[in-house]
Amino acid sequence: MTTYDSVLHPPAIIAELKKNNITHVVWLPDSETNFMYQLLNDEDSLDLVPVCREGETMAIAAGLWVGGKKPVVLIQNTGIFESGDSIRGLGLDINQPLVMLIGYRGWTRRGPTPDSAARYIEPILHTWGINCYLIETDDDADRISIACEEAERTQKPVGVLVGTEFGV
Amino acid sequence: MINNTDAVKLIDSKRTDSVIVPTMNANNVGFGLPSVTSNQDLDLPLSGAMGKASNLGLGIALAQPDRKVMVLDGDGSLLMNLGAMVTSANKAPTNFYHFLFNNKVYAVTGGQPIPGSECQDWEGMAKAAGYAAVFSYDNLEDFTTGIDEALAASGPVFIHLSIEPQIENTPVQFRQRSPRTVKMAFDEVPAALGVGSD
Questions:
Q1: ipTM for the complex?
Q2: Which residues of A touch B84 (CB under 8 A)?
Q3: Structurally, how many domains does chain A consist of?
């Protein structure tokens, strides 16, 4: 397998969302998931709900969930830091089975991680008791299904950290 | 100005099968929606995540496009999350009715003035954000006369209300709480909407 083959491509993520009957993607664009935008726009089975600030996503997802839909949120790790009160009040406190796809800005396996957005994200999720999975290649994409199953079973948010993504 | 309880009573009287998402003073257990509601099963109160009531209502409106959703917001709350006005207007749900209870103070923390309380132009902000229709009422008579027109308009609709401040000074841990918690509401509303009954 070449290096290029072992990266993450947006179609693998979209396929997982469709497989899990996701209806809405509530999101704010980020550089880690940039190439997914056009595919999401073109996918009739997924309704994009763009927001102005990341903390809105969990609240909108809560309303969609109460109304019978199955949303995910898609934001950058920096947005998780901004979203603390929403995750507490409209994720954990109401037992929302929400999968949060989180762009893992600053993530690298190749040595020191100078970006604090990458260094802090996993400890913060764990402090909230939110389990998370890492996807870096197409072979990892099925962890989205694991996260969806876990969110439903535990009735709480689950994180999926999205490592470097490449275009179609 | 309009009395808080009179405002929620009037809105509740027009709700039919609407979902109502009240927050802050509109959700006060003593003089807000919980004290007057005619259909508690379709009330989804928000007392945590301040500023997110309209986001919550937007999600329901998108999920249930054939049912009206009425958000009863506070001015201090909405200021925490002004971008939500653009978020709502951008998705443009025709069944979304955003009431702003503007009392110019943080009523639940002792009545401190909210920033810019004397100079805000909420109607202008709503129009600029892209709401399909904007209404404003500063007395109960006009609100009573006008609410049918506002609720007949195609959403997203923004309805600004000038509300008399009712100040809470009791520390949070000693306040009267609604016996129906936010968690209970989230557990009960899906059944009232018929979600999962197919």
A1: 0.96
A2: 52, 56
A3: 1
User: pLDDT (tens digit, 9 = 90+) per residue, A4-41?
Assistant: 556 888 899 999 999 999 999 999 988 777 778 888 88
The whole-angstrom separation of Cα A103 and Cα A33 is: 6
pLDDT tens-digit readout, B155-174? 999 999 999 999 988 877 78
Q: What CATH number did the domain enclosing A131 receive?
A: 3.40.50.970
Minimal Cβ distance to A64: which of B50, B59, B182: B59
Residues of A in contact with B21 (CB under 8 A): 63
pTM given for the model: 0.96
**A56–B87 C-beta distance less than 8 A:** yes
On whether residue A56 sits in a domain, the answer given is yes
Please give the biggest Cα pair distance in chain B.
50
Q: Does A49 touch chain B (CB under 8 A)?
A: yes
In this structure, are residues B39 and B16 in contact, taking their beta carbons and an 8 Å threshold? no
d(CA A133, CA B146): 52
Within a domain: residue A3?
no
